[in-house]
Structures are given as C-alpha cells and as structure tokens.
Amino acid sequence: MAKPHRIATQAHLNEAVAGLLAADARFHGIATKAGTIPFRRRREEGFEALMSIITSQQLSVAAADTIFGRLKKAVVPFAPEQMLAASAETLRACGLSAPKQKHMKTIAAAILDGSLDLKRVRSMHDEDARAHLTAVKGIGPWTADIYLMSSLGRADVWPVADVGLQAAIHRALKLRKRPNEKQMEKLSKAWRPWRTIAARMFWMHEDNIRREKKRAEVEAKALKAAKGKK
User: Fold this and answer.
1) Domain presence at residue 93
2) Structure confidence by residue, pLDDT tens digits, 33-74
3) How many domains in the chain?
4) From its phi and psi, is residue 174 left (phi > 0), alpha (psi between -120 and 50) or beta?
5) Looking at residue 189, what DSSP letter applies?
6) What does pTM read for this prediction?
7) Which of 88, 114, 213, 226 is such that its CA lies 20 to 30 A from the CA of 27?
8) Rounded to the nearest 5 degrees, what angle is found at the Cα of 212, between the Cα atoms of 145 and 66?
C-alpha cells in the first residue's frame, strides 16, 4: 500500500504551488497577494497537538495561545493521565469552556484505553485517519482535518466546514456568496492532490487583505487627525 501523501520537504511545497498555478489560473493572483508560503508545521503531533486544536476552536490565535499556555502550566506533566485528573475549576481558570473540557477529557480517556491510536493514524490514509479520529466523541471533522494538515503534513486535506476558509474563498474568487460545504467540495476538485496548500494560500490571502485594510484605516485616521490640528 502506498504511503499517505504528505508535504514533507520544501520541494513538495514548491511542487504543490506549481501544480495549483497550473490547475487554476486564479491562483496566480491569490499567490501574489498571499506571498511566500513558509515550509513548516504549525503543531507537533500527538496528544498535545489535539489539545491545542481543541483550545483554538472559535478563538483568535492570540487568545488560544494564552489559554493553552495557562493549560500547560496547570496540567503537569502535560499528558492524558494528568488531563483526566485535572479538576473543572483548574481547567476553567485556564479559560476553557465546559464543552472544551469535556472534549479534552474524552480524548485523553480514548488515548489511554487504546480506542484512539495516534501512532496508527500516522500511517493511515486520509479517509481512514479521519474516520479513526472522528470516531472519538469530541473530535469533529474540523478538528480531524486540522490535525491531519498541521500536525501530519497531509497534502490533500480540505476542511469544507471551516468558516474562515469559506469566507476567504468567497473574497478571493469573488463569488456571489460564501460557499457551503457541498460547494466547497465541488470548487476544490481541480486542486487535488494539493488542497492543503490551496487552503493555506486562501488563508494567507485573506490575512494579508485584512492587514492591508487595517493599516489603511489607521493611516486614514492619522491623516484625519493631522488635518484637524491645522
């Protein structure tokens, strides 16, 4: 059986970008605005990576980093056994909601009883890996996809339910409205087998547009204030 398709080297990343540019001319403009895509993994794999992803759900990067930093200081050593033993008060003090606490403890218990085998997930193909992960209550499709993308470096993962990605595609491709999950899947067919990199390009494109907009607003405000002083 062939190994799962991964972005394991800078050459793989370069091949992915070239493949997307060849497959869809719209990526030329997106790539220009997105800038250079760094070759890196956002998270290590394993228990800690899953906990980080759960923490980050529906939060800004800064807020998630702060909460996860508190969590790692409160749960020592940072391992499934200690997570299960941590009190609700301790986890709440870190900034975790009750649902996130429940998800984390369920995942920790699944790792300990063997029903979640993260070592096996490494060698599973994408669909099998996603099915194994989402069989655990507390790991939804989005969490599984982000884990496969950012921790295992899988090349062709496409998180159709990611609202931020939907919004980024809406703007980048100048669509009439934000695509739903079914439309997201249809849009991405031509981008196989590099949809992980396509997603990263769209995210970076959106981030850079928002930064430019914010910078322009700050400059306009400063200019208005300067004129008011004259």
Assistant:
1) yes
2) 999 998 875 568 999 999 999 999 989 889 999 999 999 999
3) 2
4) left
5) G
6) 0.89
7) 213
8) 50
